[in-house]
């Protein structure tokens, strides 16, 4: 086996499989030269709305913009507080801070890496206006208790589904409802390595609230409904027609992409499940998992050693994320003593994401498993 070829994400292999259709769609954009708000943008918005079973989809420039547009459209005021997970990608904290809003951290669940109603409740104050469940690594946060909490305190719920497109909520009252459609608005990213990725930057929002959709549409387009009449302060955030063309083709394969990831995840579960010191990712009973990342936990400070050992054996791995939000210099509004968000801090020391993509093979995974088992055995 050519072990030098194991990749964290294999965009090249996937492109080779879809090349004919993707090339044709791109060529059509070039022939029509409608690069901004072209036909593919409208088609992709319709196709994605159908897929997500959402009333409206509004495309935009990237996933970070999607979050920014959501907060702008909800008309939050400077000083308003928004509850976000302490273990997260930086985008949410960044746009909140830029808008003069205050991110307030809440700890996460150690098995699912997501916000819980219990941790969110501790972060509540009388200035709290919204809550952002981030469906990290491809699995929904437990939404029923979170929605209940939001309802009780009149909070907006913004779902970050950048890593969880296609995940279904299976909790009692939600009959396999798509992630992103349970709260007021869902934010998506089409960064190339995401489960549905384009060939550059891209993002979108989905909502079932027509008024909110209307505001999002306007804000993404300089706050105008009618050209040169600016009703709201807006931004310029658009999905390129070329990217919409790629996404229109790839959306037709998303279910199959996610199934391949799920298959690869079960193989990892089997290969790694019995290795002492390795904890495989928890599967929640209330959500399907689309495995944007397959993230193990490595006990007893062996994570960095294991990562180096994998690297020596030509196996890529990544630490998402090596620092909790309250420890980030730009976002630590005050000194947080160690243990302020114990789970987030522990995860930042223990998590390791393994190669996960639509082209991953059993042979590659067996090899990865044998190298991990070998390292852990040597540490006993
Ligand atoms: C990727 C990602 C984003 C941001 O998406 P961009 O398109 O890179 O701006 C936001 N939140 C989460 C959880 C992400 O994984």
Automatic annotation (TrEMBL):
**In its keyword annotation, does this UniProt entry include ATP-binding?**
no
Name the Gene Ontology molecular function terms of this record: transaminase activity
Q: Which Pfam families match?
A: DegT_DnrJ_EryC1
Keywords attached to this Swiss-Prot or TrEMBL record, sorted alphabetically, are: Aminotransferase, Pyridoxal phosphate, Transferase
User: Matching InterPro entries, A to Z?
Assistant: DegT/StrS_aminotransferase, PyrdxlP-dep_Trfase, PyrdxlP-dep_Trfase_major, PyrdxlP-dep_Trfase_small
Q: Does the keyword Transmembrane helix apply?
A: no
Q: Which family does it belong to?
A: Belongs to the DegT/DnrJ/EryC1 family.
Q: What is this protein called?
A: DegT/DnrJ/EryC1/StrS family aminotransferase
Species per Swiss-Prot/TrEMBL record: Nibrella viscosa
